[in-house]
Amino acid sequence: MQQPDKPQPDPKASDEALLVAAREGSRTALELLLARHRPFIYNVAWRLVLSPADAEDLTQEVLIKALTRLDQFQGRSSFRTWLYRIAMNHFLEMKRRPMEQAIGSFEAFGAELDAVPNEDLSTEEQLSQQELIQEAKLGCLAGMLLCLDRRQRLVYVLGEIFELSTREGAELTELSEDNYRQILSRARRDLRAFMNQKCGLVNPDNPCRCQRKTKGFIQAGWVDPGQMKFNLPHQQSILQSLEARQKQLEEAMEGPYRGLFQAGAYDQRAREQLLASLLAHPHIQLVFNLN
Fold it and tell me: Long-range contact list for 84-90, CB < 8 A, 24+ apart?
C-alpha cells in the first residue's frame, strides 16, 4: 500500500519547526532553513574578505559546522542567535584571506591611493564610464574596511552596514554592550579620520575623486572592465535584502560618509550551487537522514 505523501513544511514556519522537520528527514525543511539564513552569513563574510569565492567557502564552512553540532543547541537562545554566533566566531578565527593580506593598514592603503595618478575625464567619458567609476568607488570603500582590524571590521559591518542594534550586535559577537559600543566607535573614528584626509566624497578639499582615479585603477589592475567585482547587475543594497529597521540618525559629523558603506552589497551569488553542495555533504546527509 502506497504511503501518503508527507505534508510540505510551511516556508513561514519558525526555525525551530523547520529544524524538527529536517531532523525527521525533510529535505525541503532543511533547504528552507539554509536559504533563510545564508544571505546574512554570506554578506557578512563577503564584507570581511571581499572575495565571492572565499565568502561562499566561509558560508559553507559555517553552515556545515552549525548543522553538525545541532546536538549542542539547547534552546537557551533562538536558533538564529546560536547560528550567527557560530558564524561570527568562525569569521574571527579564520585564516587570513588574500585581500586581508594585500591591504595591511590605512597608511599603506593611503600610499597606494596616492601613487595612482589622477586623470580628469571628459564629460563624454564620465557618461560612458559611469559603471567603471562606480566600480572604482565601491572597490575603494571596500579597501578602507580592510584597513580595520578584523574585530573592528566585523562590528562595523554589523552595526553600520546591517544596522543591528547595540544589543543585537553584542549578543551575536558575545561582547558586553559597552565593549561593543567602544569597538564600533573606534572603527567609525578610524574610518572618518582616513576619509577626512583622503576622500573627496567626504572632504571637498581632498583632490582624490573616483572619476579622476578610474583610469589609474584600470592601469593598476584594481578595476577590470571585463570582470567587475563590486558593481554587478545582480548586486543590491544590504538594506534591501534585510527586514526594514528604524534607527535614529547618528552624529551629524558622521553623515557624509556613513551611507557610502551601505551601498554595493553583494547579493546571493551562486545560491543554488551552494545549497546543493551543502545538502550533498556526507555529514549533513547523515545528521538529517537525507536520501
Answer: 84/37, 84/40, 84/41, 84/172, 85/171, 85/172, 85/173, 85/174, 86/62, 87/41, 87/44, 87/45, 87/62, 88/44, 88/154, 88/172, 88/173, 88/174, 89/174, 90/58, 90/61, 90/62, 90/65
Residue 93 CB contacts under 8 Å (≥ 6 apart), including other chains? none
Question: What are the chain's domains?
Answer: 15-288 (1.20.140.160)
Specify whether the CB–CB gap between 191 and 257 falls below 8 A. yes
When pLDDT is cut at 50, 70 and 90, the band that residue 205 belongs to is: confident
| Phi, psi torsion values for 157, nearest 5 degrees | -60, -45
Which amino acid is residue 24, in one-letter code?
A: E
pLDDT band at 277 (very low <50, low <70, confident <90, very high): low
Query: How much of the chain, in percent, has pLDDT values that exceed 70?
Result: 77
In angstroms, rounded to a whole number, what is the distance separating the alpha carbons of residues 112 and 191?
A: 16
Cα distance between residue 104 and residue 88, in whole Å: 21
Q: pLDDT of 43-68, one tens digit each? A: 899 889 888 889 999 999 999 998 88
The SS3 call for residue 4 is coil
- Please state whether the predicted TM-score (pTM) of the whole model is above 0.90: no
Distance CA 282, CA 64 (A): 10
Instruction: Provide the 8-state DSSP code for 6.
Output: P
CA dihedral 102, 107, 112, 114 (to 10 degrees): 170
